[in-house]
Amino acid sequence: MNKKQFWIYLGCVAAAVVVFLSVGEYLVRQVPNTHKFKHEWMKKHHNEVEILTLGGSHSWEGIKPEILGNHAFSLANSSQMLQYDYFLFNNYDFPNLKEVVITISFPTLFADDYENDERRWFNVIYYKIYMDCPYHSDFSKYNFEFSNMKTFQDKLRQFFRRTELNSDEYGCSVLNTVENKDTIRWNNGSEALEAADRHNHIGDFTHIDTNLVRLQKITDYCTNHGVQLVLVTTPCWNLYVDNLDSVRLKKMQEIMQDYCKRNPNVLYFNYLTDNRFVADDFFNSDHLSTIGAEKFTRILKADIEKNCK
Known about the structure:
By secondary structure, the protein is α/β, with parallel strands linked by helices.
């Protein structure tokens, strides 16, 4: 192969790669996903929302908005931390908002921004592409699904399998049925130990102030506009809780106590070790099942109504 042939060959390979990535990117963006669904829903119905839930998977999978009251919707997403709770809260206009519920999970206050976390940076893609988040350039890696090749390939397979949306009409997850529970890993405790270890290593104490600033801005808005803000720590299985970093757990509890003293209009409910929840109420060690989510949301609603009165 002479020099000219080499460059022609190289050009053909590059063109093929570009075509593959371009077509793949288009197909992947057609796969149903909760971020896209919620953004499109909000553009049409944001002015109807009276109750809004935010937070990560503990909210998305554990709080059923329709039980909390009428005109309720979940803007929670898997792995969502205060960084994007704050973005979403400010991204839409809520003229009829009466109540906001945000989950404060064990990692919430310690979490660094996605961009600085090599294990979770790709979450930014979902907000940039599907929720019009302006934090990054259209030419950044956050504006292309193929930037994370593993999930890119997974989503390509989902496209050809005609995967359906995994949220219901209120934005709540429909995945955590008891039938889908990994009973082997539940029974031997391996999932609980892995989950606790994973969460013990998310962020550190240096990010607390940044996250509290975000939370305080949401709090100030709610206070100034007569909106009830409810902070919630959802129930988790005892084996998971027992293996959480005790220093972090104590710090989290101290911060929340102090925060509520400084913001007396905020309600905080900590159900982390609530013994009313049994094995079937959990999908795994730190997420409620669909059965548990309904049970929990009814308890949460009753506690909110009791304390508001």
